[in-house]
Batch of 3 targets.
Target 1
Amino acid sequence: MSDSEALTGEPLALDLVNTRPVEDGARKDLLGTPHQLAAWLALQADRVPRDIRAETPDGSDLAPVHAVREHTEAVVRALLDGTAPPESALRGLTEAQRAAPPVRELTWDGTAVTAAAHRAGPLGARIAALLAEAAADLLTDPAMSKVKECASGECVMLFLPSHPRRRWCSPTRCGNRARVARYYQRHKTAPAADG
């Protein structure tokens, strides 16, 4: 897994924040184009409603998603630092949810009344509302206190460890780098054998 690939499998809000990894010492935006946003939504298929995934994002859909990502990261990092989250970030997440609230649409399927949540409005606002709702779920969950930043000095990825000893965002990304670095360090300092 390279730094330019999206890290998925964490709570949706953390997966969103993790779309800004560090590569070659600089932050990279994995949601910088409508195509990248569509690809990321496809990776999140089990957590993003089909009606949102069925539409093709355009340039105007990026700004609301980026804003939710910035607000989410600001709140998460403040909580990790043990400080009060920025009021503007909390307000921004609330406003994003308000822009496209879910409405339970009732339909008759031939045998029973069914209800499915749908959001109205522009695609970017609907995606942003969904992601802001996921952020609200994470931020209010007691598990938020367990979120960690990757132990690799060059990595900014966040994760919710399933095991208390987990240190890296991914065993194939940063975990492997740490193992290789330790191996190199041990063998670099070992005396050369005379042959």
Target 2
Amino acid sequence: MARPKPWEVDDELWAVVEPLLPKVERRARHPGRKRHPDRLVFQGILFVLHTGIAWEQLPQELGFGSGMTCWRRLAEWTKAGVWPRLHELLLAELRSANVLDFSRATVDGSHIRALKGAPRQDEAPSTGAGRAASTT
């Protein structure tokens, strides 16, 4: 039997993902074009992320919708907080199945500044922006 492609979403995974996606109702008065199916767009997003191609180069023959459709839906779902919730659900499922191996995990906190103590009341917390420009 052929191995499924990494961007192909089986029914079991889709049953986890679908309830997390925001429901978008069509307008009654000016409905416009029918929305491309979420499952196909999700697969299109996975295809682009897996292959590394540009969004506009997503092949129409695959049926995932246009690259712009996938890109917009990715932004919509990101704004709705779908990805952190999906991550939590999948981690919980893997934990319950006892298939997570933390012996190979690493933690990297290098992107966060470690300050000694709290900032003084007369100082605003630093965001790190503009530090290079103000070195006079």
Target 3
Amino acid sequence: MENASELVHFPLLINTNYTASTIPWRLPSDDIRIPTPTELSWINLLLNLIPSYKKRAENDTSVPDAANKAESFAQRYGEILENYKKDPSCRGSPPNLILLCQIREQILKEVGFRDIFKSVKDEENAKAISLFENVVRLNDAIKDEGARLENLVRGIFAGNVFDLGSAHLAEVFSKEGISFLSTCQNLVPRPWVIDDLNTFKMKWINKPWKKVIIFVDNSGADIILGILPFARELLRRGSQVVLAANALPSINDITYLELVEVISKLKDEEGRLMGVSTSNLLIASSGNDLPIIDLTRVSQEIANLANDADLVILEGMGRGIETNLNAQFKCDSLKIAMVKHPEVAEFLGSRMYDCVFKYTEA
């Protein structure tokens, strides 16, 4: 990650009571030495993900002695999580999701791994690139603006299924993969658990935004078949679009450098995305290296680019729900994600694989 001195507050964030945590893990009155039911459920969720991380690490051919290093990672991280289950104050103060994700990434780096999901990201990006033209043509064929927007939004939800931070979905991907078009067709029916699409649609049709910042999520179908067709439509409607991607790898989230490469492959010889100019498309590093994001710690680059934005979009469960569902902004904001953890579904009172589309006007 960038040096801590280079990480700054996101300027469009209203800081009053902001915390990068949507689901409270404990109350001030709880004994810090006794885990709460919520803490236990989330620690168990992270414990259940260790086997999929270990498997990816074992298969990382870029790292010598990967199997032993993967075992070391699994043991060290597992021990820390088990200790937190026994005593949440074992390392000072009770944990939160950001801390536990930071510890996981730190241990991976310490034992010698940089990007254990690199091969699967490359594979899924290649598959999605081959489907991009067809997905865009299907969207463009919808003449009604509102209907086309809803189809684009459904594409974002369908793409967001590609999430190896979910133990169940990681298993599904390893066995059979997931079809983007069939996922689009089989989304849970509206109304979704949070469904502000009709309000957003009215603003979309009547008053396009001048500058949109999108904090993006996963590689593969998520970014290429979900976000990029949506961003292309914004460009076609006259908006400037900034895509903010991770500075460093985490799970299958796309990084800034990977996103630059993907878009270069999708552009034609004149620098267009299926006929739409990309002169108003910018790609930036968010400064982040986790699958979730604390908006008090973003890159100076994205902070500078955001100053005149009038719409901020946080996409994906980690950024849009788990850490920033309640974040308030000085401009319009949209949190869009699919519910892929039972703990999140329980908190929202939703179904698994329900959809969150939370639009807030400034």
